[in-house]
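PROTEIN–LIGAND DATA SHEET

This sheet pairs a single protein chain with one bound small molecule, MTE, given as SMILES. Inputs appear in the order they were entered. The predicted three-dimensional arrangement of chain and ligand is reported afterwards as a token string under its own label.
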Amino acid sequence: MNITRGFTGRPRTDNAGLPPGQYDAGDDWPVLSAEVTPELTAADWSFRIDGLVAEARTWDREAARALPASAYTGDIHCVTGWSKFGVRFGGVSLDAFLDLVRPHASATHAVAYSHTGYTTSLPLGDLTGGRAWIAFEYEGRPLPAEHGGPARLLVPHLYFWKSAKWIAGLTLLDHDEPGFWEQNGYHARGNPWEEQRYSGD
Ligand SMILES: Nc1nc2c(c(=O)[nH]1)N[C@H]1C(S)=C(S)[C@@H](COP(=O)(O)O)O[C@H]1N2
Ligand SMILES: [Mo]
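PREDICTION REPORTED AS:
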């Protein structure tokens, strides 16, 4: 007898647990890049936070990795429709970086920018509270270059275009300044549970 299955009348092989309009990509991890994968070594990588902060700072790889390690295990959702369940990233919580630069009370948004020039904009509140990371590892191994290695931004509760690969920095602002996809019609916040795909959603 299968009592739990009778509860919804459907087996658990459907898209239960996925945001609306998403499908499970399974073991596939598509590469989606607007630019060519840069030749960026761990030694060349750096991460900076500036703008509306008490003290702008830049970390190299060693300084960033000296901050407390923090991992994410959960799902990721691309606006093109694929989601991945239960993936594991290792890195450092963005809270650890933000605590050191001390954002001004007037800071409400951030532009994340990559070493390649890619940009994406986010409400600052989506980058705090243990919900965003600088990720160096995927499933216990260095993040592959095509997926943003040596380091990418990881904001898994928003559509994945917000998770800038080859992350170079954040500039904190008192207004929303649309990034690459946001200028091309995508949503300012991008919450997959509310299907905030395009700017009118
Ligand atoms: N620098 C950079 N970061 C990026 C992108 C990009 O084109 N360039 N694409 C975004 C989009 S649309 C998605 S879905 C994810 C894809 O990450 P992946 O290639 O590791 O799957 O990266 C996001 N971050
Ligand atoms: Mo995407």
